[in-house]
Amino acid sequence: MSDELARIERLRRSHEAQRWPSHPSGDAATDAGSILELRLAEVALRLQMTRDDSSVPATVIAIRHGLQAHFSFEESLGTEVFRKYGGDSFVKALLQEHRELLSRLDQLREMAADLVEHPQQSREGVAKAFEDAIALLKRHTQLEEEVLEKAENDLRHKAN
Ligand SMILES: [Fe+2]
Ligand SMILES: [Fe+2]
After folding, report:
1. What 8-state DSSP symbol labels residue 79?
2. pLDDT tens digits for 118-156?
3. How far is the CA of 141 from the centre of ligand 2 (A)?
4. Is CB count within 10 Å lower at the N or C end of the chain?
5. Ligand 2 center from residue 90 Cα (angstroms)
6. pTM, full prediction
């Protein structure tokens, strides 16, 4: 297998493996796992299943660490293949979205911490911010997967 194909497979696995958050992965938490965790946090906030939201800020920090590790992994291993199969503007947009997502998580942590301090305030704004971040992350991962799939198909076709 070519180095390029092996890299693509590692990138795709780093998305795939995290559909089961407890699945051990060498590549840290990744987008899909974080989607689940964010959704759980959002549900906890929105439905007020518990009066104790004090663990939410720490959960958001853990997700941010995991995502940052995933983004670094992706940027060091994937930039070349993303550029080749997606173009310069695609790479630029991906990098910009990585920064955007990390900053959204910082905002979510602040909002959640504020909610812990002022539990009587409305939870709608916080829940909406979680939902928006989840939507951005999902779309981001989908676009990456589309390009990786295209690259994988192309390389496999050439190998045959
Ligand atoms: Fe990414
Ligand atoms: Fe990703």
Report:
1. H
2. 888 887 888 888 888 888 888 898 899 999 999 999 999
3. 5
4. C
5. 13
6. 0.84
Measured in Å, residue 43 CA sits from the centre of ligand 1 at 24
CATH of domain 2-159: 1.20.120
- Distance, CA 108 to ligand 2 centroid (Å)? 20
Q: Give domain limits for the chain.
A: 2-159
Quick one: tokens of 155? Answer: 């390389």
Residues with Cβ within 8 Å of 21's Cβ and at least 6 positions away in sequence, in order, are: 29, 33, 36, 37
> What span, in angstroms and rounded, lies between the C-alpha atoms of 153 and 160?
11
**Residue 84: count of CB within 10 angstroms of its CB:** 13
Residue of 140, 127, 131 lying closest to 100 (CA atoms): 140
pLDDT tens column, 45-79: 665 556 667 878 888 888 888 888 889 989 999 99
User: What is the whole-number distance in angstroms between the Cα of residue 123 and the centre of ligand 1?
Assistant: 29
